[in-house]
UniProtKB/TrEMBL annotation:
Keywords: ATP-binding, Chaperone, Nucleotide-binding. It comes from Streptomyces albiaxialis. Belongs to the heat shock protein 90 family. Residues 596-615 are annotated as: Disordered. This is HSP90 family protein. It comes from the Bacteria. The keyword Chaperone applies.
């Protein structure tokens, strides 16, 4: 024997549902007003479609803890009230075809429930425009889920349309206060395409700034900037107008006047058919367009059920691409014709642009030549630098740059500092953005090759001193060479590139390692050049040093030169380097206060004489 199946219907606990909406779906009770406005606007839209030229108003009237929202819209008949108002999740707007749905703001059939977040009672009086014979109908609903429906005499409501009466729940009276209602109606509805009033005062400001006509481009720019200040609270660097007809979208992207982290998601304001949908849309633009804030109105993007964000669908993806194109177009236009403004933009946002140019080839091609870099000729765009120098030399580290920048510049070699975040990576990609450009890392050989060799007879005269220098620097893994270069004030230049340092670190490890390891490390020995101390023959101090007969003093002087050149390079010092600096400083100090004399049996008279001469 089988038990009989008894059909049941789900029971809905309205209080539980309202609690769910207010605490989990909507971010604030204020959305009740948006839902009411939206129903009024949808009803007016539906009537306008059926009856072009019909009155189209939504009027809000505040009272003592009450609010009335009156629309001149399509209205409802009694059967419609049962089917639509009293059925949660039922929407007349979803039932129609997709195309028709696009006309409306609502679609989920839960909007009216939002009113219970602030009201304990809802009374709806409606008269249908579709069926002029149908009498007015009243629907009275309480937050416990109970409701009554009755028809009213014809004169209870003469005109078609709907009035929603709200009575505040005890803790929510503030939401129905006149000032609050006006503020919210303005906030959500100021762009609505119908006449919306609160207690007789209009709250709409049509048309939006981007649809207004202005006497000229200058006046338009000023109006847009003022709008940005009002909407977002900042004076924009520039305004980019957005127009994507396919998505029924228009608006403006305002360029931020201060740098922001590219990781920070943009908070954009999106209106849907005039109604403010969200102030925090963060998926509207491609990630790379972090430097703008948008405000726009669209008729095609879909909201999520909370109606506080955009539904991630193909339309949103297409819109994102189209908006990305518009912003890229603006950048391209600046790059092609408005260098001054491009310069202003990059001065603020170059770090962000650099970070995304690494991942976005198009952005790289467009922007890289115009990005500012530190160069031996000051802050320059790579474009300008490449025009001045057939080879774009760069250093990978800031220290290398410091080491050679002044010297290289004095010899006419331009160098770009690639030591900052992303910089060398980007410089190496320059040929992609600027075909035909040669980019090369600056190495010690290039620098040395640009320094003038010294005449052989002069070099010969300094041979003993050079020999002392080489012998002194040998244990430090450094060669000594003599060149003539500018600026003459630099006595010695320490050239040491990445390869050299790597090689030296390996050699040090080899020394410290066991036999087996030193064998293996030894087999890895590279052919990288050693560090070089380039003594400047044009520098008077070097010439004087060459005349010092005291071997010990000459060696200390070479060590001091080496230490000073290291310091000038601003490179982190190895423990051995610090010890050397210490030793030479104290050695020279000691010598200065107590020069060794011939009587002590120490050589050094010549040094004495030099000091005498110097006095
Ligand atoms: N002012 C009104 N005039 C005419 N019909 C209305 C009005 N308010 C609500 N309705 C009817 O009641 C239905 C349910 O309204 P509700 O606000 O709950 O949902 P919705 O607007 O369809 O969708 P959403 O949940 O997305 O707002 C609507 O689809 C509409 O048919």
């Amino acid at each position: 024997m089988t038990a009989e199946r008894i059909p049941h219907t789900f029971q809905v606990d309205l209080r539980g549902l309202v609690d769910l909406l207010s605490h989990h779906l909507y971010s604030s009770p204020k959305v009740f007003l948006r839902e009411l406005l939206q129903n009024g606007v949808d009803a007016v839209t539906a009537r306008a479609a059926a009856e072009p030229g019909a009155t189209a108003t939504v009027r809000l009237l505040t009272g003592d803890s009450t609010l009335r929202v009156e629309d001149s819209g399509i209205g409802l008949t009694e059967p419609e009230v049962h089917a639509l108002l009293a059925t949660i999740g039922r929407s007349s707007k979803r039932d129609s075809l997709e195309a028709a749905r696009a006309e409306y703001l609502g679609q989920f059939g839960i909007g009216l429930l939002a009113c219970f977040v602030v009201a304990e009672e809802l009374r709806v009086v409606s008269r249908s425009a579709r069926d002029p014979e149908a009498p007015p109908v009243e629907w009275l609903a309480r937050d416990d889920g109970s409701y009554t429906v009755r028809t009213l005499p014809r004169d209870a409501r003469e005109e078609p349309g709907t009035t929603v009466h709200l009575t505040a729940r005890p803790g929510a009276r503030e939401w129905l206060e006149p000032a609050r209602v006006t503020e919210l109606a303005r906030h959500f509805g100021f762009l609505l395409p119908y006449d919306v009033t609160v207690d007789g005062e209009s709250v709409t400001e049509r048309p939006p700034v981007w649809e207004r006509t202005h006497p000229g481009p200058g006046a338009r720019a000023v109006a847009l900037a003022a709008h940005c200040q009002e909407t977002f609270g900042f004076a924009p660097l520039d305004s980019i107008e957005l127009d994507v007809p396919l998505a029924g979208l228009r608006g403006v992207a305002y360029v931020l006047p201060t740098a922001v982290s590219p990781a920070q998601r943009g908070a954009h304001r999106v209106h849907l058919k005039g109604m403010l949908l969200t102030e925090r849309a963060d998926e509207l633009l491609p990630d790379w367009a972090f430097f703008v804030r948008c405000v726009l109105d669209t008729d095609s993007l879909r909201p999520t059920a909370s109606r506080e964000n955009l539904y991630a669908d193909e339309t949103l993806a297409a819109v994102r691409e189209a908006l990305g194109d518009a912003i890229r177009g603006w950048l391209a236009e600046l790059a092609a014709g408005d260098r001054e403004r491009l310069g202003q933009f990059l001065a603020v946002h170059h770090l962000g642009v650099k970070s995304l140019a690494r991942h976005d080839r198009e952005m790289l091609k467009l922007m890289l030549p115009w990005l500012p870099f530190e160069t031996t000729e000051g802050q320059l765009s790579l474009e300008e630098f490449a025009r001045r120098h057939p080879v774009v030399h760069f250093t990978r580290g800031v220290e290398e740059y410091r080491q050679v920048a002044a010297i290289a510049a004095a010899q006419g070699i331009g160098v770009v500092n690639g030591g900052y975040t992303y910089d060398s990576e980007l410089i190496e990609l320059l040929p992609l953005a600027r075909p035909g450009t040669t980019v090369a890392e600056l190495d010690t050989d290039t620098v040395t090759a640009h320094l003038d060799p010294v005449e052989p007879d002069e070099e010969l005269a300094l041979a003993p001193f050079l020999a002392t220098a080489r012998a002194t620097l040998e244990p430090l893994g450094c060669d000594a060479v003599l060149r003539a270069y500018h600026p003459v004030t630099v006595p010695a230049l320490h050239l040491d590139d990445r390869g050299t340092r790597h090689e030296r670190a390996r050699a040090e490890e080899e020394d410290a390692a066991s036999d087996l390891w030193s064998g293996i490390l030894g087999s890895l020995r590279g052919t990288a050049p050693r560090a070089r101390l380039v003594l400047n023959h044009l520098n008077p101090l070097i010439r004087r040093m060459a005349g010092v007969a005291d071997q010990k003093l000459a060696a200390t002087a070479v060590e001091a030169l080496y230490g000073q050149a290291l310091l000038m390079a601003q490179r982190p010092l190895r423990p051995a380097d610090s010890a050397l600096l210490n030793r030479t400083f104290l050695g020279l100090l000691d010598w200065a206060v107590h020069p060794p004399s011939a009587a002590d049996g120490q050589p050094g008279r010549q040094a004495d004489q030099q000091t005498e001469e110097g006095r």
